[in-house]
Amino acid sequence: MSLELNDVTLTYPDGDGVVTALDRVSVRVAPGELAAVIGPSGSGKSSLLAVAATLIRPDSGRVTVGDVDTLGLRPRELAALRLSKVGIVFQQPNLIPSLTVVDQLLVTEHMRARSVREARASAMETLAAVGLAGKEHRHPHRLSGGERQRVNIARALVGRPSALLVDEPTAALDHDRGARIMELIEEATRTFEVATLLVTHDTEHLGTVARVLEMRDGRLRALDPA
Ligand code: ADP
Ligand code: MG
């Protein structure tokens, strides 16, 4: 149930020409593995996540999510695939102010058409795994920034996706909170055996990450372990 990009190229229109955001990118992330992609602004990191999430179709190349080849899928089929196999952690948590922590998770569970009982059990288990046991019935304004980011991560994991895509998770946090969020993402990757692709321009918290790749001008290459 891995995540795989094979020889993926993505261009955007740019005046009379095009800008190449992804230039023949290949990467495979195994279940339970975290791969971190670093690179300067404009290097193609967000484009990489959007293509891996099947939100943007590349010009060429192949994207495989949890053993499903997405190449020939129609938009409706891609939407169903995203709901069942892809978890996305955007930089801003975007929690709904009027909902408690557990209800933030149940919104998407409702779309997955699970039974209420099953959905609640999965939500409570996921919240415990991210360290939010006892805070399930709080509203977002009674959480710290780090706790809100934990809810964001739990919400991406509650449907037990094959792939977890994370955009700049530490950007809005101070050093200690950022370090704890990175540890949490590594731990959750193993616990839920998800293939995690994380992008960041912040190299501060990568000390414990085994696999780091670098994006430059749309090209992706592995960095040697330090
Ligand atoms: P990063 O996330 O590393 O900052 P992006 O993937 O956002 O990089 O951007 C990669 C390149 O593609 C940049 O040159 C950027 O200007 C360009 N780009 C990104 N999104 C669009 C878009 N929607 N239309 C045109 N160009 C875009
Ligand atoms: Mg970006």
TrEMBL record:
GO cellular-component term (any): plasma membrane
Keywords assigned by UniProt, alphabetized: ATP-binding, Nucleotide-binding, Transport
Pfam families named in the record: ABC_tran (PF00005)
Domain ABC transporter: 3-226
Source organism, top-level taxon: Bacteria
UniProt-listed SMART domains: AAA
InterPro entries listed in its UniProt record: AAA+_ATPase (IPR003593), ABC_transporter-like_ATP-bd (IPR003439), ABC_transporter-like_CS (IPR017871), ABC_transpr_LolD-like (IPR015854), MacB-like_ATP-bd (IPR017911), P-loop_NTPase (IPR027417)
GO MF terms held by the record: ATP binding; ATP hydrolysis activity; transmembrane transporter activity
Protein name: ABC transporter family protein
UniProt source species: Nocardiopsis alba (strain ATCC BAA-2165 / BE74)
